[in-house]
Design brief:
Helix content is 56%, strand content 5%. It is mainly alpha-helical. It has a two-stranded antiparallel sheet with strand order 1-2. The longest helix is centred in the C-terminal third of the chain and has 21 residues. It is elongated and about 110 Å long. The relative contact order is 0.04. The C terminus is likely disordered. It comes from Salvelinus namaycush (Lake trout).
């Protein structure tokens, strides 16, 4: 192999176009499936890359151009050997062959950017190979990304995306245009901002997504598929034909770019124009959620990207999910079309049932449902009907069972903090942020984490702005309500009283033993005793709190159950003297020292 590469380099160095073409075609055929490279030939590969770039600056026949670019695509797979390709000159050469180099200082009659013309009839294979090479280089090298920013490559791509309705560009040109735009925006904040602001990226890419999916608009925020006829007499919703693999691939690239440039949209103020663009995009995303691909895996990935992007939109724009008219076969609740909300709920439950990577796969849909329920009364009531129907089962723990409520309550004790907090927040919103209702459906033990974080362990708090709901207590619940253990959330079997038969003094003795044990564990830093503060949140117990607990025991018991508490340094000497006096009293009276802390 080493000799072959040297021979290829020798043929390239002759400068003869035919000899170079034969040598490169041989190399490309042999290396077409090579994705790993040894360090032995780094110098030769670097030299070959320099020679190929030199050839591309010449006026070459199309077959030789294509062979040179194929070689660069193969060489650029080696992330440790892209040095020849990351200079401004090299990137400019490649972008010119890709048709995305812009003509600096020139504008068209409408003030737009002019692309550098490469040929009157551009060779699409040449364009695709150049785009693939630039993608590889930008994927492997941050310097190349900066050079791409300097050369304004994203502007050139955006100009070609505006031609999305023209048939001259095939799938591969469009796909790798989008792939390169994704790589650039993923790695540079400046390019994300430029695409969003200067190039009006949300509208540009929404229009491109619209054209890719072949959409039509029966109403302002109601989307259909062009060519799909709806039977008004059918009781089933119009079934959309599955999207082709090529359309799905391009659509997912668009969704990923949009995600990059809208990542902070729901955390900042948006003006009226931006809000309109986001709502238009939201309507398209609703259609994406209701669409499918030929392959199930593609459908799930498509829906996942759509959900991730929906989560970026300002909350005020999510009402577009409910705007389509109720039609035959639609899921209707309170006069509103709930098809999209029901799809989100089913999607979330499927990811929950799989139990894998819940944070990545389930949380986007669960967060979206939570925020939609918080701001839309109809959505909250529909979800409450589905997730928290009137309570009938009072014999089992809230986390036991296969109902969606049981599954979500189980998540409230998940080891992943984000997962458990999100599940608890969703149920809390469905309960209209009512502490008593939340405890009713989940049990105090499961609810304690969220309530403690919000300072609601004492109950009360501001329940937020929610509409009134009718009484949902079933007859079974009302009959058993007085017997339900609020901590576990179910009716417990009768348990024997462990203090039955004890005198009051014995009960006090056991209580003081418990205080002693807590204090020992606390002083050993095994546990940190906590108490409920006046504001409803948990606070650490200090030595003073434990002394107050001790002082509530009658004085006679304190003689038997002296507790050595951790004190502030300035109090230790006084406490030690006090302990010595008590020990002397005990020895003099002959009382036993059971329970005394050593």
């Amino acid at each position: 192999m080493n000799m072959d590469l040297n021979v290829i380099i020798e043929n390239m160095e002759t400068g003869d176009q035919d000899a170079a073409l034969m040598a490169l075609q041989t190399y490309n055929k042999k290396m077409t499936q090579c994705f790993t490279f040894t360090t032995d030939e780094e110098e030769q590969r670097e030299r070959l890359g320099e020679l190929v770039l030199g050839f591309l600056k010449r006026d070459l026949q199309p077959s030789c151009q294509l062979a040179c670019l194929e070689t660069i695509r193969i060489l650029s797979r080696d992330k440790n050997n892209v040095a020849p390709f990351i200079t401004h000159t090299a990137m400019q050469t490649l972008s010119r062959h890709a048709g995305i180099a812009i003509s600096h200082g020139n504008v068209d009659c409408e003030g737009g950017v002019v692309l550098v013309p490469f040929a009157e009839n551009p060779d699409l294979e040449v364009i695709v190979e150049a785009l693939k090479s630039i993608c590889n280089i930008c994927l492997h090298n941050k310097v190349a990304v900066q050079v791409g920013q300097d050369l304004q490559l994203i502007v050139g791509i955006a100009e070609r995306l505006k031609q999305c309705g023209e048939d001259q560009w095939n799938h591969y040109v469009r796909f790798f245009d989008l792939r390169l735009m994704f790589l650039l925006t993923a790695q540079r904040v400046a390019m994300r901002t430029q695409l969003l602001r200067e190039l009006r990226g949300v509208s540009l890419l929404s229009n491109h997504l619209d054209a890719t999916l072949g959409l039509c608009w029966p109403d302002t925020f109601e989307v259909g598929r062009a060519g799909v006829e709806v039977d008004p007499d059918s009781e089933e919703p119009a079934e959309l034909p599955p999207l082709s693999r090529e359309k799905i691939e391009r659509a997912m690239e668009i969704l990923k770019i949009l995600f990059n440039i809208t990542y902070d949209a729901n955390r900042r103020e948006v003006d009226e124009e931006e809000a309109a663009a986001f709502r238009h995009l939201g309507a398209i995303l609703r259609h994406c959620l209701m669409s499918s691909a030929d392959a199930q895996d593609d459908t799930e990935e498509f829906h996942s990207h759509s959900l991730n992007l929906l989560g970026n939109l300002p909350l005020s724009c999510l009402d577009v999910l409910l705007m389509p008219k109720v039609q035959q076969g639609s899921i209707e609740y309170m006069g509103v079309n709930m098809d999209a909300v029901n799809m989100l709920l089913e999607y979330m439950e499927k990811r929950l049932d799989r139990g894998k990577k819940l944070k990545e796969t389930m949380l986007p849909s669960l967060n979206l449902l939570t925020e939609s329920a918080r701001i839309h009364r109809e959505t909250r009531k529909f979800l409450r009907m589905k997730v928290l129907p009137p309570l009938r089962d009072v014999k089992n723990l809230p986390e036991v069972g296969n109902a969606l409520r049981n599954k979500l309550v189980r998540l409230m004790t998940n080891i992943d903090t984000d997962v458990k907090n999100c599940a608890a927040e969703f149920l809390f919103v469905l309960c209209k942020e009512s502490v008593s209702r939340f405890i009713k459906y989940t049990g105090y033990g499961n609810a304690a984490g969220l309530l403690a974080a919000r300072g609601l362990l004492r109950g009360g708090g501001n329940p937020g702005v929610y509409s009134e709901d009718e009484d949902s207590d079933t007859e079974e619940y009302r009959e058993a309500k007085s017997q339900i253990n609020p901590v576990t959330g179910r009716v417990e079997d009768e348990q024997p009283n462990p203090m039955e038969g004890m005198t009051e003094e014995q009960k006090e003795l056991e209580a003081m033993k418990l205080v002693n044990m807590f204090d020992k564990l606390s002083r050993s830093n095994i546990i940190q005793p906590m108490m409920l503060g006046s504001d409803g949140s948990m606070t650490q117990m200090n030595s003073g709190d434990l002394r107050r607990m001790r002082d509530q025991i009658p004085q006679g018991q304190q003689l038997h159950l002296q507790t050595q508490l951790r004190l502030e340094p300035q109090q230790q000497e006084q406490q030690q003297e006090h302990q010595k006096e008590q020990q002397d009293q005990q020895q003099g009276s002959g009382s036993d020292d059971e329970g005394e802390v050593e």
